[in-house]
Sequence to fold (583 residues):
Amino acid sequence: MPTLPAFSTAKELTYGQNPVLDALLLHFMTENNLEHSIDPAKNASPEQIRFMVALEENSFYAPCGDWMLHFLLKSRLSPDLAHEYGDQWKLLMRLVRDHVPEKDLRIRILHLCRHKFRMAINAPILIPSRMLKRMLTIFLTQSGLDDPYQAIKLQMNQRAMRFVNSRYFNQLVNLCPEDRLQCASIVQLRFELDLLEMERLLYLSTMKRYWTEDIADQSMDTEGLREILGAVDFSPLRGIFAPERGPLRILYLPRASGGIIFDLKIIQALLRQGHRVVVALKNGFYFDSPTVWDLESDPVLAQEFKEAHFIRDYRISKNGLLQAMREHQLVVISDGTRERFNPYRVSVTFARAWKECDLVLAKGEAFYRRFINTSHNFTRDLLVFFRDAHGKFRMYYKPKPEHVHKFSEEALQDKAEEIISQMRRARNAGKTVMFYSAIVGSIPGQVKVAIEVLNTFVAHLRSRMEDTFIINPGEHFEEGMDADDLMYMWERVQRSGFLNVWRFQTDTDIEKSFELMGRKVPPVWAGKDSTYSTGCTKEMNIALDVQRRQPELQIIGPAPEKFLRRREYGVGKFFDVSVNQYG
Fold:
């Protein structure tokens, strides 16, 4: 019987080491309802997880800290783990007792949740925050409440707004520096002032008493603030916002209502500096966390976000998201969840926003646990700030690994323009320009075979067709590009106006490819054609749209109506999403 390998960090865990470990990891994922292959309607695919977490092939990722994962996989209720479970249970009990006045209903909810709690601690493999999520769902459905904190959050925001509009807040933030700043140029001086303002805003935004107390403490004077800030290491800000980096795209993750009013002051400063910001709010009740629905029910937030652009599509395309970010400095989205940060449950829009931003600016100790206090790295630079249990301001910076490469919008546009230039030259030389759409990864595990089939057939076409410039997508792939990158690039090429013929792969094409390779058609490829591919389905829709504007475009291949059985291509992958991922 194989034994479990020893591990000290979560990064060491991978599928394929031995069957016992594979079974345990799958057991952990299924018990936490996070396994994509079991429930693709709710859980993100491994490819979408890689939008956010820097994982190698077959790597394992759990949305919890390394120490917690160590005990959960061994089903050991350590004192620290028992404390985490206990904290979640206390949150639930307090919530029910404060917001369910009817005795019988209150008892029913508490006892039902107690059964779930006992199951969790008797065989501790459930992440405590996932346990709380289940009990919150029970509470919400049984009580009939949508947001028991609605009035509380409204009051927090009102208090915070009164404070940020006060002369006291203005004095703390805008007091001129006592000493003359070192100034090599006006640009450098402006940068130093921006940094000073950012330091003050970040620090003040974590002072909870300014939105939880009716009369905010005003004992801290400007001299006291200057002394406090002088003891904090703000050095990461200097590198992150260095002028030579240019404007950044920032994904901002707020923590609490009330605090979000201070967050908006930070965001306004970032916008003034030329950056673009995407704010991600919760999709439903999670205690005092601000939600997308608060912007409709809270007049304070409605006023503060009146200039923002709202994306209500939870599955927005890369093109749609980039267009929104180009046209609007401030964009608001939902993360798609009612829990702490959990990449397996975030919306497609959130995953794409993470991927397209340069920096994730996150507020709260929960983000410290998920981002910093883990051995896993992430695909974007992370800056986390919060006030700890002792009231001390903390800030942590975690840069993305050097091997993580981001294909910027400009880089993809440049690649597209290079191909378009080749098409233009071919047309000017009197050649016919053809694009060949084919299955690349719609058959799981067959990507290499698919590319071989594609390259073989395109070579065959080129040998038979005179004065024809054939574009083979398989010849323009670069390591690190995913389906989002490719579809964005190819759509620019396809809509350029230089295509004469758009050919879609048929089953006959595939059979001919295997014949040219001297092999029989494997069973998994039998009867397949481009209608089996969600990527090709999207391209057929583009082809028909282009043909409406350019009637001379010839479309060859399966009939368009045969593509209707397929949906949008999977997020970050080259094969299908067969069911709706986010209900």
About this structure: The two ends are 41 Å apart (CA to CA).
